Amino acid sequence: MNEEKDDSYYAGRLIQYALQPAAVPERNEEYSRLIEMYLDRAEFGATVRNIADGLGLLIVGEVRRNWSLIVAAKPDSVFSMRAQDYRASHGYKAERRLLDGLIHVAIAAAVFPRDADLFDYSRKGRNPVTVDEIEEMLRQITNQLEEENKNNPDPPAGAEDLHEA
Amino acid sequence: MWHSQLTRRLRVLLYSKPLLELISLNDKENLKTNHYDAVTLAIYILDRIVESMGLDDDSNSSAIINSVKPLMSQMDARAQIEPNNDRHQQFAKKILHRLQKIDPIEYGDFDNGQAIKRQLDFTLIDERYVSDERSVLELSPEAANLFLNVFDFDIEDAQAAHEAVTLSQLERGNIEKATASARDAKFRSIQFQNKIEQILRETKRDVSQLDWRDNVPKILDQALAHIRGRIISEDYIIKSARDRIALLEPDGKEALQTRAIVELIENCKKRHNQLLGILISARRVFLNEQARQSFTMRSSSTDLPNLRKDILERLFSASKRSALTVIDGDERDFEGAMPSLLGIRVPEVFSVKQNISWLLKPPRDLAQRMSLPNEKQTWSNNIIELPRYPFRSEQDELLQKHDKPLKLSSMLKNLVDSDEKNAKIFEYIALAVIRAFEDESAIDWRSERLAEDFECEEIWGNDFEIYDKKMLETEDLPE
Q1: B106 burial via Cβ count (<10 Å: 0-12, 13-18, 19+)
Q2: Contact A101 B327 (CB under 8 A)
Q3: Are A98 and B355 spatial neighbours (Cβ–Cβ below 8 Å)?
Q4: Which of A155, B108, B388, B423 could join A162 in a cystine, given CB atoms 3.0 to 4.6 angstroms apart?
Q5: For residues B1 and B344, what is the distance between their CA atoms, to the nearest angstrom?
């Protein structure tokens, strides 16, 4: 790497890679070396975290060798994506936004570990989440709610649009 | 054609009329009884009478009326009205009277194709005199059947409904409909199996996440009863279908279709038998998993949220408005869940290089100087959807076969003159012409944009000239 550049330059480079989901340290020598720097030099790690913080980015989880740096946007960040921005269409109505939201929560629920998963050493990693898996989860929940409401199928009178979600 | 089964069902419906009329039972003179749910109280009265039938002491009218009073007190509390024993007494008596004294009901029927009127005379509660001049209340046979059989039916059991429809259609000879219903029943069976297997998968993953003390055993018991009932019902459908096959021509269409129904229902039965095995062994799975998991290392922290149970399932149970607030955020400080779920979006900034490239591109957007864009004018977004137009081959021919260059405006005007006033055809032609301008390589003709505008039947914008590519080889045409 160029000796004339200082840590802030490399910190910027590393954050730039983190902002490109397609960039992977295994296939990019510079990215890989920047991750090494982040792990090996505490002061460089602190610079990266400070710049990321200033940009409204949060470094998520543990940073590992040969693994990408994962960043998430804080709500007030310029990198934050709101529900209304998800689909660039003037017809992006509330119902569609709600459906998209439920699907995204289902994806998060499918990948987010439970206590039991963290202590199950027999499972080293998990397979990627598939569309079918998410669909099945959503169907199970709706069927489960339908089943639970069998003995009390009608919402209380005056309860506005209950059960619609 | 009207048949006797319809009359039977109609009569069952009419027997419930006195109960249904109680829904609108309002005492206009005494507003203090409007808050009582008369039909709810009537159902309770019927239940009390069934409960005490045979026990002479408890089933007289005053005992029944007294048994309803606590419910009426609860209804008073809901309406914030002071309970009053006299009011309770009078209103309960009134309901009881309505169930005992029922005016005959007239209904329409058909006798040998002729419309006739019939009269249904019945009572729901009878008063029977016993010794010592005492009387007891009893349900009439009709009321007992209504209350204990008809009302007790699981009306939302979709699987039972599919099987009932299949059987009914089979009996009437509607083989095709019966086949479709049998397929639906099979689909329900698959869903049911998935549900039970999911419970067992969850149990194997983490036994503590499921309520094996109350909820899961209840679900398993219900499922077991349901599956046993379905297997009996499926046996009956299979037997009926086989009886029918015996009467049909062996290689006829109906016989083949009925055999297909038998196969489908047998498949459902096989699935239900498998499920029965799974259900019977489910408790053993729980005990084994409980024993195994009790020795695995548990997290010392219970802070890790369960997104499915704590968030997703609650969102589904919430009202639409509340769920949307969680997703979208509110107008105050809460940003909503979506920014956290969607990841990052790198904002675009102005780039001189990109801007120059864009400026150097030929202008292909529709002119927007006539008015602000509205929904109708954004049809250019549909260019990629050309294949969805059913009539495209005829119109493609029209676009290709002409001896000299033709303007889009003239082509549309010709269609108007020839009474081809189909907005979809206009739309298709306009989109095809724009597509030819965008990508001339794909087709045998091409279009060039002209400096003039046109408007025809709600299509407006730049006019285009349409050429056959062969013309370009022979004539000098403007590029």
Answers
A1: exposed
A2: yes
A3: no
A4: A155
A5: 65
- Taking a C-beta distance cutoff of 8 angstroms, is the pair B121, B131 a contact? no
With beta carbons less than 8 A apart as the criterion, state whether A38 and A44 touch. Answer: yes
Average pLDDT on A84-99 reads 76
d(CA A15, CA B206): 38
Q: Computed from CA positions of residues A101, A106, A107, A111, in that sequence, does the dihedral angle turn out positive or negative? A: positive
Across the A/B interface, how many CB contacts are shorter than 8 Å?
Answer: 165
DSSP H stretches of helix in chain A: 7-18, 29-40, 42-54, 83-86, 94-111, 115-118, 131-148
Contact indicator for B363, B462 with CB cutoff of 8 Å: no
Place of tokens 């994506």: A81
| pLDDT tens per residue, range B339-354 | 888 888 888 778 888 8
Which of B242 and B399 is assigned the larger pLDDT? B242
What do you get for the CA distance between the two ends of chain A, in Å? 54
User: CB-based contact (8 Å) between A154 and chain B?
Assistant: no
Asked if residue A40 lies in contact with residue A48, where contact means CB atoms within 8 angstroms, the answer is no
This prediction's pTM: 0.46
Q: What is the ipTM of this complex?
A: 0.78
CB contact under 8 A, A164 and B320: yes
- How many Å apart are CA B462 and CA B454, to the nearest integer? 6
Sequence length of chain A is: 165
A61: left (phi over 0), alpha (psi -120 to 50) or beta: left
Nearest by CB to A97, from B298, B305, B328: name it.
B328
